[in-house]
Write a structure and sequence with these properties.
Helix content: 40-55%
Number of helices: 13
CATH topology of the largest domain: TIM Barrel
Number of domains: 2
Order of helices and strands: HEHEHEHEHEHHEHEEHEHEHHEEH
Bound molecules: coenzyme A, magnesium ion
Mean pLDDT: 92
Distance between the termini: 45 Å
Shape: globular
Largest sheet: 8 strands, parallel, barrel
Strand content: 5-15%
Length: about 350
């Protein structure tokens, strides 16, 4: 029994408060539901209405790698029209602009920011350093000032190169700059694999060559050995999630390109959710409901989270910091885990209207 129960109550309040109480962490960005993000090529207007009616939390219209070089200008015009003409409901609306090393990026930014009041975020591909983001941030700011845009356009860094991962901590930390527009970091698996020369052509999938062979089970010659497939994305995923979460940014997992393999998608999305990703990019409408499900707390998880909160309140009232529930230890950190789950479930319910 602790000497001073009120200290435990105070700790309960403090530790269950949002993490922004920590002084070095920047304020949270706008809260957005981001379980699924549907990618739609800007050169495929026939897909726009379907995307708008889909169950994706966010939609991004692409001007970059899903658009052929000769179609860049017409795709940009399609996207400007669509952002203004289509009813996108409450979706978060994004455009992926071309990279800083192309002749298209500045015009993409100017046209989208100056002519599309509905845009929420620009996704900036191939971010390799904080300076890349700074350059786009300045351009966006100038366009907003020129046209008198009142709603700030946010930025998402698409990190998809060896250089981007080498600099991931600095990229994420740039969110602490006053006025930073950065809201999230997305991992781009295809470009990352090309950049690091990973021996795979699969975008977001696994490979039979990345695994471990166990020692023989027994000393007899020819004793059986097992081969366990491993996740080749694990190290980079983990690093990106930690960097993003350290600076209150949303980490988003990249695509799983094999859109007919729903079991493979499910496994990929579950791994991402387990590590702390906020959601996952989808490249086909068939992927959305599975991804939404994976990143939504189940009812039994929410009910259990409420039991944890109740048990910890009772513990705090009794001056206890750690208690057991169903044979498992709970302590004050359990409050934070449970509250995150409940908050997420409530945000989903609110978004559903
Ligand atoms: N957004 C909206 N609608 C989409 C879509 C998307 N990303 N992908 C497919 N559709 C639509 C198709 O137009 C089709 O509509 P319809 O039934 O009205 O004709 C329907 O969904 C079924 O499509 P399907 O025939 O299964 O696929 P497809 O061969 O037309 O397209 C891809 C396959 C991969 C080319 C397409 O899904 C795509 O372009 N995805 C996005 C690619 C991208 O943005 N990449 C960059 C990020 S990595
Ligand atoms: Mg890419």
């Amino acid at each position: 029994m602790p000497a001073c129960p009120s200290l435990y109550s105070a700790a309960f309040d403090l530790l269950s408060a949002p993490s922004t109480m920590m002084p070095s962490v920047p304020a949270p960005r706008p809260t957005r539901l981001f379980r699924s993000e549907l990618a739609v090529p800007g050169s495929q207007p026939k897909m726009f209405e379907k995307a708008a009616r889909s169950a994706a939390d966010a939609v991004y219209l692409d001007l970059e790698d899903a658009v052929a070089f000769d179609d860049k200008a017409s795709a940009r015009a399609n996207v400007v029209d669509a952002l203004n003409a289509i009813d996108w409901g409450r979706k978060t609306l994004e455009v992926r602009v071309n990279g800083l090393d192309t002749p298209f990026m500045f015009r993409d930014v100017i046209d989208i920011v100056s002519r599309c009041p509905r845009i929420d975020l620009l996704i900036v591909p191939k971010i390799g350093s904080p300076a890349d983001l700074h350059a786009v941030d300045m351009l966006v700011g100038q366009v907003e000032m020129e046209v008198g845009r009142s709603q700030r356009t946010g930025l998402v860094a698409l990190v998809e190169s060896a250089m981007g991962i080498a600099n991931i901590e600095a990229i994420a930390a740039s969110a602490a700059q006053p006025g930073s527009r950065l809201e999230g970091i997305t991992f781009g698996s295809g470009d990352f694999a090309a950049s690091t020369r990973m021996r795979t052509t699969s975008i977001g999938g696994v490979t039979p060559h990345y695994g471990v062979l166990t020692d023989p089970a027994g000393s007899q010659p020819g004793a059986p050995r097992d081969f366990h497939w491993n996740d080749p994305w694990h190290a980079v995923h983990s690093r990106l999630v930690v960097a993003a979460r350290a600076w209150n940014l949303r980490p988003l997992d990249g695509p799983f390109a094999d859109f007919r393999d729903s079991d493979g998608l499910l496994a990929s999305a579950r791994r991402a959710a387990a590590l702390g990703f906020e959601g996952k990019m989808c490249i086909h409408p068939a992927q959305i409901s599975q991804v939404n499900d994976v990143f939504s707390p189940r009812e039994d998880e929410v009910a259990h989270a409420h039991r944890i909160i109740d048990a910890m309140r009772a513990a705090a009232a009794a001056g206890q910091g750690a208690v057991s529930l169903d044979g498992r230890m709970l302590d004050i950190v359990s409050i934070r885990q449970a509250e995150q789950l409940i908050d997420r479930a409530e945000a989903i319910r609110a978004a559903a209207g």
